[in-house]
Amino acid sequence: MRMLLVLLAFTMCLLADGQDTLRIGIAQADSLLIQRSLALLAQRYQVDMAEAERVQARLFQNPTLATEWSIRPSTGRVLDVAQPNGQMAVTAEKLFRIAGQRSLAVRAATSRVRLAEAEYAELAAALRFALHSNLYRQFYLSCAIAAIGSQLDLLKGVVDAYGTQFEKGNVSLKEATRLRTAYFQLDDERARLLMEVNGIQQELRTLLMEERVVVASPLAAEVVPLRPLPQDSVSLMALAEANRPRLRAAEAGVQASEEQLRLERRMAYPDLALGYTYDRNSNYLPNYNGLNIGIAVPLFDRNQAGIRRAQAEQKQARSQAELARQSVRQEVMRSLADLRVLQQHYTSASRGLDEQLDQLSESLVANYLKSNISLLEFTDLFEAYTSGIIAINSLKADLQQAYEELEFVSGQRLFVR
């Protein structure tokens, strides 16, 4: 197909720049994203930190060991603990969290781990969507640029020939100027597209942490313009509620807030301290052994502020979860509606336009040189060709982005590639 040939020519121009080039498909791009993305790496650390908090919550508190030695006993010796009549006391104490505080702390920490993991999955899906969208956009813009470039080469020959004939007085200034204007407008469109590609190139390099030129090279199965819709809106919304990481994160946030509220209420119960004391030569017995039991009396501090804060956080988490659920449902409905509009537009107005534009581009200059069409018709057709080639490739990019967006908002792979 002629479009594939001009796209290959455009890619060869990139290689001619003397820079290394990374030609990449969609699946390979996903693999590189997971390996290289600094945003994902930073979010992965959030999961690791949450996991560390869960490990910490499982640990028992350390016991306390204390000793007491007499500095100046009646004998006048300093630190005479080694003497038979020297005084020494040793105390060991362990603090116990009662009312199930430790188990609740572990459960709250476990919920925060699930929250961090769901947030990581949502970020990964968002980055994957951005990566795919940029790759498809670059691919189809490159198709348009390559097609316009081939027409520019043909038109340049005509413009140069008319310029020579104008200098000889064989053609009018009007004809020469109109052709140069058509060439300028076509080249201006190409320059605008190239600047857009440059912006996409920056995004791709940032996403993939790549210094080379990234060139999208999707497989044929990845650029099919029309794909059957797998399910209706109700089924897709149910699918999104079950699989979207954003909703899993919201549910984990609610669970974590509920566990934290239970923990804060249990924190109103004081800790129990159990200990053992051994005292030599400083009690009513020469070798005293005693049991220590201590507990704080909750007269003033019953963790009122912690409980109120946890209650507010629980209400906030529930509101955010409901907001996320409604937002995801609306995203699914909008994405599905947009995809249907684009598919209808492509089917009714754009299907087969590629072939017609190819035929037009192959015969346009030849028919003008043979005087089969006038100069006005020639320039009008050139403008129509340029607009058409940009519009059809933009529509294809929009279609692919719509497929990717529907998969992103539903949290599920829906289309076979």
Highlighted features:
single chain, 417 residues, alpha+beta, Outer membrane efflux proteins (OEP), four-stranded antiparallel beta sheet, two-stranded parallel ribbon, 10 helices, elongated
Can you characterise this structure?
The protein is of the alpha+beta class and about 425 residues long. The protein has 2 domains: about 1-60 and about 95-270 and about 305-410, Outer membrane efflux proteins (OEP); about 60-95 and about 270-300. Helix content is about 70%, strand content about 10%. It has 10 helices and 6 strands. α4 packs antiparallel against α7. The longest helix is centred in the N-terminal third of the chain and has 67 residues, at about 100-165. It is elongated, with a radius of gyration of 37 Å. The model is unreliable at about 1-20 (pLDDT under 50).
> What is the helix tally?
10
If you compute it from the alpha carbons, what radius of gyration comes out, rounded to the nearest whole angstrom? 37 Å
Spatial gap, N to C terminus? 21 Å
- In what range is the share of β-strand residues? 5-15%
Poorly predicted runs are: 1-18
Provide the spatial order of strands within the biggest beta sheet.
2-3-5-6
**SSE order:** HEHHEEHHEHHEEHHH
What name goes with the CATH superfamily of the largest domain?
Answer: Outer membrane efflux proteins (OEP)
Number of strands: 6
Helix content: 55-70%
Q: At the first level of CATH, what is the class of the largest domain? A: Mainly Alpha
Shape: elongated
Query: Could you describe the largest sheet, including whether it forms a barrel?
Result: 4 strands, antiparallel
Structural class: alpha+beta
* Total number of distinct structural domains: 2
CATH fold-level topology of the largest domain: Outer membrane efflux proteins (OEP)
The overall average pLDDT, rounded, is 86
- The CATH architecture name of the largest domain reads Up-down Bundle
